[in-house]
């Protein structure tokens, strides 16, 4: 490593460490204490990132895999039923950006917020993404890597991008 690169790394290290600390405290520690409801027997690893945790409701015996993102929003909730299983890397979002006006930057357009509900006994495979307004029916399975943009009927297996029904259970 040359000297200039080493000096740049060292001079940026304090800012990077402070950002890492801030992210750890805000996303992974403070929010967890605000959880609206967490039933008995829940497992949430310390690597789970939460936003608006006061809008997140977890039923009994919910098992959350590592590196999940449960991102509720100011005006929408995440409601998870009993006995739900999350694989690693699952993302649940309750907000997205409007894209109606081509003359306005996406970031300047209003947020679209909608509740997400996961029914009893559902299983969300690794690295699945659940978009705002989606309801996953009881006993359903979402295949690894799926992006769910529409609600899923109870006892249905879905997979793909976007997720499509494969069969009933």
Mean pLDDT: 88
Q: How many strand units?
A: 17
State the share of residues found in helices, binned by percent: 10-25%
- Gyration radius, rounded: 18 Å
The CATH topology is UDP N-Acetylglucosamine Acyltransferase, domain 1
What structural class is derived from the secondary structure elements? Answer: alpha/beta
CATH class: Mainly Beta
The appropriate CATH architecture is 3 Solenoid
* Distance between the amino and carboxyl termini: 57 Å
| Shape verdict | globular
What is the CATH homology-level superfamily?
Answer: Hexapeptide repeat proteins
Number of helices: 1
Strand content: 25-35%
| Lateral strand order in the biggest sheet | 1-3-5-10-13
State the low-pLDDT regions, or none: none
Instruction: Summarize the main sheet.
Output: 5 strands, parallel
Q: Give the number of domains.
A: 1
Q: Write the element-wise H/E pattern from the N-terminal end onward.
A: HEEEEEEEEEEEEEEEEE
């Amino acid at each position: 490593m040359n000297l200039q690169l080493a000096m740049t790394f060292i001079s940026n290290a304090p800012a990077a460490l402070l950002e890492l600390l801030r992210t750890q405290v805000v996303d992974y520690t403070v929010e967890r204490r605000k959880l609206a409801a967490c039933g008995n027997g829940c497992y949430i690893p310390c690597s789970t990132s939460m936003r608006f945790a006061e809008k997140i409701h977890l039923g009994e015996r919910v098992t959350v895999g590592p590196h999940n993102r449960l991102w509720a929003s100011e005006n929408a909730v995440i409601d998870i039923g009993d006995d739900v299983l999350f694989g690693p890397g699952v993302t649940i979002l309750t907000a997205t950006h409007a894209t109606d006006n081509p003359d306005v930057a996406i970031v300047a357009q209003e947020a679209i917020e909608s509740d997400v509900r996961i029914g009893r006994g559902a299983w969300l495979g690794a690295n699945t993404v659940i978009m705002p307004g989606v309801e996953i029916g009881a006993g359903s399975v979402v295949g690894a890597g799926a992006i769910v943009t529409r609600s899923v009927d109870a006892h249905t297996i879905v997979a793909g991008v976007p997720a499509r029904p494969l069969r009933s259970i």
